[in-house]
Amino acid sequence: MRPPPSGDGSGPGPYARFHDREHHDALGPCLPGGGAGQDERRPEGDAHGPAGQHAELHADVCVIGAGPAGLTLALLLLRSGATVAVAERSRGFTREFRGEILQPGGLRVLDDLGVLAAASGHGAQSHTGFQLVDGRRILLDIDYSRLTGPHNHLLALNQRHLLTELLHACRQHPRFTYLSGHRLTSLTTTRERYTAATTRHAAGHTTVHARVIVGADGRYSQTRRLAGIRHERMDVFDHDVVWFKLRTSGPLPRHVRVHRNAGQAFLVHASHPRTLSVGWTIPHRSWNTLAGQGIEGVKDRIAGALPAHRRLVHDQLDGLGDLTLLDVFAARAGTWTAPGLVLIGDAAHTHSPLGAQGINLALQDAATLHPHLLDVLGTAQGDPRADELLHRYARQRAPAVNSVFRFQTAQAKTMLRTSPLADTVRPVLARLVQHTPLGTHLTHRIAHGRTPVATRTDLFRP
Ligand SMILES: Cc1cc2nc3c(=O)[nH]c(=O)nc-3n(C[C@H](O)[C@H](O)[C@H](O)COP(=O)(O)OP(=O)(O)OC[C@H]3O[C@@H](n4cnc5c(N)ncnc54)[C@H](O)[C@@H]3O)c2cc1C
Q: Where is the composition biased (Basic and acidic residues) (predicted)?
């Protein structure tokens, strides 16, 4: 993120809680260096980890990061008979303020894996579509019930519940190793190919030797950084987001709504249990000025834009600490593959929350990579065709990801901006989406992606 400057300009402001500090990616080569021997890549200062045991283990695939991308890929591979180790730096899934709106394309992957019902069983909120609202006027209504079922809706599903069920399903497989509280600290190369990942944890270090290392460690990916892969920020979303939740006993909205108001936008949707999740999109670096008005000024501003929720805002936001300023940006890794290594999900391409695409893409990345990785495991050690198979994955997936970047750029311009052009385009777009087959096509694309992804359940072992 671009943290809004604090009073002294050296970091995030003192007002809201601030999530996810800025990480600067090192620029460097994407191919492992070194000659025939082994080469350990450690970030500076990391060589002096805590003393302790050093364990070694072997897996077909080592996945770094137990987010939606990493755990979904792990489960797909396990179902197909591979040996998988997943290293996750945190010890639990209590992650607040993560996107929780799932698109039909992602729901389909989770359903194919048999985890959707269990995850939804913890409580979830179904939505019939997206609406763009200006004052009391609904400018745009993207209705998912126009799509073919069964997944013709959006689902607000707490990531903790989703990840808990994915992990539970992985744990049913004897070929699964879960390294909880393990932070990736170095990658090892052998003959110019990544062959092992070393993690640091409370008891020392663990090295996982694997045919393929998968970086599924999110937008600040350490895998990406250690592999020297560039991460290029994109000018898709030049806003900051302030996030908060409001408990409600009133009727819950059935749509994910974007409320526009004088250059700001509020994303509002119902979450389980009986909560409204609100993302306030503010001009980049404007938070300190807003916060300078104090909590009462901020509350008045929010309530003015969301009159239907005025009471909840005034009753429940007690201080600026109830608001969380979020690190939001769009970016793309310079490459998604290197010999013996592949990046998926946010580690490969990071998206703004607009249109709720990040989890969807992460799940679909996993489903797309699954057969390619099985092909890699089917080659002999050192076979150069393995690299081509990883490239093939990247080539297959790039058009879908690029299409989402283009769509989010257009969305930011038409939904968030206030300009004569945006004001002209918006109603035209609204008519197209609501009343023509192009609208159904567009809705399908938002819901399933440019190319719908099918899970290769035929590759599962009984
Ligand atoms: C405010 C906000 C709202 C959003 N809303 C939505 C939404 O409604 N719908 C949607 O689809 N998307 C949304 N997104 C995007 C979505 O959250 C991400 O795209 C999605 O979580 C990406 O999944 P992932 O598995 O690739 O990465 P992550 O979910 O980031 O998971 C990465 C995992 O790697 C672990 N990790 C990191 N570093 C290391 C390391 N060194 N060693 C070991 N483990 C490590 C992390 O702890 C984490 O568990 C939103 C994003 C933001 C910021």
A: 17-26, 38-47
